[in-house]
């Protein structure tokens, strides 16, 4: 089977909002700070990725004097939230059977940097005004806010935060929005308009794959390597990109059922993987927008799939047609990609986590970029061997570069606009197909360097 297969006042009159921090503590903490505001601080992304990244950053002292403001609806104190971090966050240090004195100090320092704000982002400007009032009592260097919540909240959050004066075109707060940014092409366009009217260039669209060491390395390899670039521009035969995961949708059924596998991994990570390797270069810059604008979907070569039992997942529609895996073929109007099949495949519920891409050339040579289970770049000719045995976590890089006011690893609105166009076309094509099924835990589809067609084993 084929699968490619809250009324507000001055913060010192309303200090209870920052549970666990007294007036004296607030007054004493007046060194110049970097502040990270984490919305959705109890969600899966925060637990599994963002909090571990922040812990690493604090431990390495990459961002000095960092204060973390964790925001969630739960009526907790800062002490309660710190207990949550100890119990639920995926910090590597918490997995150790024994901790050294240094380990414990690092953990204590990290926990002491966290403040908690109990607030509902759906209740207007109150929570944003409270955070702003606190920030106004501090000497700050940089402020970064991260929207680790469902995308349908983004537009109201951008608007309400701007009304409160927490962020805006003339503020220094950078706002990070986590993919997929919106629920559909229309809502994405509305979000970008709101961003342009409020935050402007201070809004950054996140695709964490762009923070991976190997993704940044591809560009560094391509720019000076004329032999490789010549082959990419004249001798490509086909490109295969796959991103298969061994997890399932059990913890986020309602959210996942609205998106599906293609939005989840295809239109985000896989398209960025593709751009890193074959998008046109202008000097050292990869022109992803130009590549994405050239792409179209071969509607005859799309395969939506769903693992058996998905429809029984909590908060998933009993007759759901949402794909949990997919295979699609894209084509490009760029001259050097005109007759090159671009095959994207991925999904959930497989036996292992595998993420890679292979570009095969007409002479049988190839370049392989692996992101999971290990990061590396290997090419047969010109010979390239690059391994990254201990890569920095992508979210660590994302947060670092946001504080450093860099923009190169963030998705541009124009790129995301083209991604949503492709999503719309793929979803329309899926709707015309019968959805195929596969067993949960199925083997990841294999491929070889001479054949772009993948088969379920």
Give a quick precis of the structure.
The chain contains 14 helices and 20 strands.
Features:
single chain, 457 residues, alpha/beta, Rossmann fold, Dihydrodipicolinate Reductase, domain 2, 2 domains, seven-stranded mixed β-sheet, 14 helices, 35% helix, 25% strand, disordered N terminus, glucose-6-phosphate dehydrogenase activity, oxidoreductase, NADP, glucose metabolism, carbohydrate metabolism
Question: In words, what does this structure look like?
Answer:
The structure is a single chain. With 457 residues, this protein is of the alpha/beta class. It has 2 domains: 11-206, NAD(P)-binding Rossmann-like Domain (Rossmann fold), CATH 3.40.50; 210-393 and 411-455, Dihydrodipicolinate Reductase, domain 2. Helices cover 35% and strands 25% of the residues. The chain is built from 14 helices and 20 strands. It has helices spanning 23-28, 44-60, 78-88, 101-112, 126-136, 154-163, 185-197, 213-222, 226-234, 253-259, 261-278, 288-294, 394-403, 413-431, and strands at 18-19, 33-39, 66-72, 114-118, 140-147, 173-178, 203-206, 236-244, 281-282, 285-286, 295-307, 325-332, 342-347, 354-361, 366-372, 375-379, 384-388, 436-438, 446-448, 451-455. Strands 17-16-15-14-8-13-12-11-18 form a 9-stranded mixed β-sheet. A hairpin with a 2-residue loop joins strand 19 and strand 20. Helix 2 (44-60) packs across helix 13 (394-403), helix 6 packs parallel to helix 7 (185-197) and helix 12 packs parallel to helix 14. The longest helix is centred in the C-terminal third of the chain and has 19 residues, at 413-431. The model is unreliable at 1-17 and 20-29 (pLDDT under 50).
